[in-house]
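Support case: user asked for a sample of complex input and structure output to validate their parser. Sending the pair below.
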Amino acid sequence: MQELTFKVNAQSETPARTNVKARNFEIIVDEPKQLGGSDQAPTPMEYLLAAHAGCLNATGHMVAQEMGIALKGLKIEIEGTINPAKTFGKSDEDRAGYKEIRVVFKPNTDADKATLEKWVQQVESRCPVSDNIFYETPHKAVIE
Amino acid sequence: MQELTFKVNAQSETPARTNVKARNFEIIVDEPKQLGGSDQAPTPMEYLLAAHAGCLNATGHMVAQEMGIALKGLKIEIEGTINPAKTFGKSDEDRAGYKEIRVVFKPNTDADKATLEKWVQQVESRCPVSDNIFYETPHKAVIE
């Protein structure tokens, strides 16, 4: 299949609020007031979970169709906990990011538990956002 | 420091469009038409990069202040390339997610190159989103 490249262009609006452009879309990212932001938009850590949820929904429906699972609807809850100490330069004891990602799938379907467990395994393995969060991703940084 | 938990509640609007709630905010995630969506909002892979950009901006300003770097503005470009074959069940040759994340930092500052290289190293190491994308993250899934 043809490879797809996604790109965003971001600009600081304030030290903690960011205006991001993705194609013709604008995404505002902010921080709560206690983290120096103005709390006018979701935080980066919420957008990370939203990206994950959107990806699991789309992949979830595609895999369900392949497996012959009639999915009448899908709710997904995702949460994670961070210790902000590393980010704020206070301690290196914990990692900076989510220590663990917890996903609850609430599919509206008559499929049995064993089938749904196979479905979740396939969905998580094929969802691109799960792949980048769950496993290592190479990265390059350039200063211009 | 006190741990922080972030959570999203997502609901499928269509098989490829997702309505995500994070506190009082609503985030719509969609897919382009060729991926089965209605192209009314950014894709999960764009939100992942937007989360990263917002996190690098906030962390970047905090670390600059600590290092005595006068940051008059910051632009960040992030891109990544995926092979959709694994997601679409066509081939397991490539991973599902971004093969590599490329970040371009464009700080508006008089700081010298060596100082900015130290700054980028600190920022990437302390930004929670970088941490979750660059390194492995444990995960749990439950079906309800």
